Amino acid sequence: xxxxxxxxxxxxxxxxxxxxxxxxxxxxxxxxxxxxxxxxxxxxxxxxxxxxxxxxxxxxxxxxxxxxxxxxxxxxxxxxxxxxxxxxxxxxxxxxxxxxxxxxxxxxxxxxxxxxxxxxxxxxxxxxxxxxxxxxxxxxxxxxxxxxxxxxxxxx
Length: 156
Prior knowledge:
By secondary structure, this protein is mainly beta. The protein has a single domain, classed as Lipocalin (Beta Barrel), CATH 2.40.128.520. It is 12% helix and 40% strand. The protein is globular and about 40 Å long. It comes from Rhizobium laguerreae. This is DUF2147 domain-containing protein.
């Protein structure tokens, strides 16, 4: 019986991993909405965001993005792919890329947000979950199954 339960659990974890779902969602740790506030960076160092309280919601501005800087690694690109022609000449430096994340106490995560990709000019739905001290930021289209999760750690 124990073997069959372990097999079912392993199958569920593997299925979640293959569908792109964050495996750790069952182990979410957030208990307070302000736990998201701070500076977070991707594990590969290619993205650094500052999450902040934006009043009724939470948002994030970019501090660094490998795809958002010129070849010199320092100068931020212009937002040339923005669907709003009035924003195409702005620098992506400190641009707010994540907006409208709302704390959902029942699920222990932030939901209903938007993620703007300065690299593509596209906006996706977003949600964020704290798992084992790391922030899983999921950007998706329509359903959470159709998306990508970025794992971020608190910056030192």
